[in-house]
Inverse folding.
């Protein structure tokens, strides 16, 4: 159903991290619960809501860029009514080490705020669809859960949504990023990106994630070093179908995860 979800699932199975084929709601009842949080209508005429996965003790789920063996959540909004656009805000995730494999995600719960632009302003919105995700403890399993809820335009501020929005990464401007330059070098399998980001430390052992806009491109786990006020993140990007491709630096998304905060950097200059 979800092509990229299937590709991630295959990679995780090959890595020996997953223990079962996708399971729907019944087998997952004791491990995870899904509900839709309602935050009412905004001043812009959009609806504020969130999808919340509540996990059993010790279980984790993944971020949108989950690491080399993880499965990112994939959301299918088909079935929704009066929905023109959906904007997801991803709270800053945690970094986990599982048997020497680094993954990125959330523990206990994942709250994904979604801002809904209706097709017909002022008319009711119904969210209906399915979310596919990975769930991990000692082993990992993929799952799929359905949701169906009419949004209430009169609902008040939801504390859980507000908390998740407050946990978003800083923008480049908020984090004091002064420059972001990417050097591109061809490799036998793709292109190596070396990003030089001039910014204050995010604290502790910083980790970087490089995301290309093209979903057909796969990025390896970046190697990160620091030279004074410059963070250097290097990763190879490979096309899923193999062969050469063009890479637009302005469409790269680089997230720096540190002990104190996370930083979301959109695009980089040529260098």
């Amino acid at each position: 159903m979800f092509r990229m979800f299937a590709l991630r699932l295959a990679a995780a199975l090959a890595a020996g991290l997953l223990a079962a084929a996708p399971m729907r709601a019944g087998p997952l009842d004791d491990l995870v619960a899904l509900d839709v949080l309602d935050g009412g209508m905004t001043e812009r005429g959009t609806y504020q809501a969130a999808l919340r996965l509540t996990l059993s003790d010790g279980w984790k789920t993944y971020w949108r860029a989950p690491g080399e063996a993880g499965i990112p959540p994939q959301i299918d909004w088909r079935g929704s009514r009066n929905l023109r656009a959906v904007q997801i805000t991803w709270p800053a995730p945690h970094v986990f080490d599982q048997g020497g494999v680094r993954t990125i995600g959330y523990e206990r719960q994942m709250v994904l705020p979604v801002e809904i632009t209706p097709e017909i302003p002022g008319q009711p919105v119904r969210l209906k669809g399915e979310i596919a995700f990975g769930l991990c403890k000692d082993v990992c399993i993929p799952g799929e859960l359905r949701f169906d809820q009419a949004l209430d335009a009169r609902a008040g501020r939801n504390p859980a949504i507000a908390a998740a929005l407050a946990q978003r990464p800083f923008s480049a401007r908020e984090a004091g990023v002064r420059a972001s330059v990417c050097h591109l070098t061809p490799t036998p399998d793709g292109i190596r990106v070396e990003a030089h980001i001039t910014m204050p430390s995010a604290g502790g052992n910083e980790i970087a994630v490089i995301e290309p806009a093209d979903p057909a491109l796969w990025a390896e786990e970046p190697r990160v070093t620091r030279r004074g006020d410059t963070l250097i993140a290097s990763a190879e990007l490979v096309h899923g179908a193999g062969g050469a491709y063009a890479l637009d630096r302005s469409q790269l998304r680089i997230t720096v995860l540190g002990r104190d905060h996370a930083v979301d950097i959109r695009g980089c200059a040529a260098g």
Notes: The two ends are 40 Å apart (CA to CA). The first strand starts at residue 32 and ends at 41. Residues 170-270 form a domain with the Immunoglobulin-like fold (CATH 2.60.40).
